[in-house]
TrEMBL record:
This is DUF3817 domain-containing protein. It is a multi-pass membrane protein. Residues 10-96 form the DUF3817 domain. It holds the Pfam family DUF3817. It is found in: Cell membrane. The chain crosses the membrane at residues 12-33, 45-66, 72-91. Keywords: Cell membrane, Membrane, Transmembrane, Transmembrane helix. It comes from Acanthopleuribacter pedis. NCBIfam families: integ_memb_HG. InterPro entries: DUF3817_TM. It comes from the Bacteria. One of its GO terms (cellular component) is plasma membrane. The keyword Cell membrane applies.
Length: 107
């Protein structure tokens, strides 16, 4: 895990998974609690956390785009993956492959 934190790509992988997880929690736990159990506080709390993580995600995306010399299409695909439910987890497959090719590790 320590190696992941040392590079823009590794940091992006971590932030992407955190943002994707918060999105899933927002959509499939907090939203149903709001509308089916009359618990709007769930969306308020999870929504703020997700909003913060999305901003951190965008900053990490800009950083990895520049530092890893990504093409526009790859950065755009990462953005689109962040707004599609489970997209971050699907995109992680290619991020892990890129990590392995760049750093020669299986992390």
């Amino acid at each position: 895990m320590g190696e992941l934190l040392k590079s823009a790509l590794g940091q992006f992988r971590i932030v992407s998974l955190a943002e994707g997880t918060s999105y899933i929690i927002l959509l499939f736990i907090a939203m149903p609690l709001k509308y089916m159990a009359d618990m709007p506080g769930a969306v308020s709390i999870v929504g703020r956390i997700h909003g913060f993580l999305f901003i951190v995600f965008m900053i990490a995306l800009l950083r990895v785009w520049v530092e890893a010399d990504w093409k526009m299409g790859r950065a755009l695909l990462a953005f689109v993956a962040s707004i599609v439910p489970f997209g971050a987890f699907l995109f992680e497959v290619s991020l892990k492959k890129e990590w392995h090719q760049t750093y020669g590790e299986s992390t």
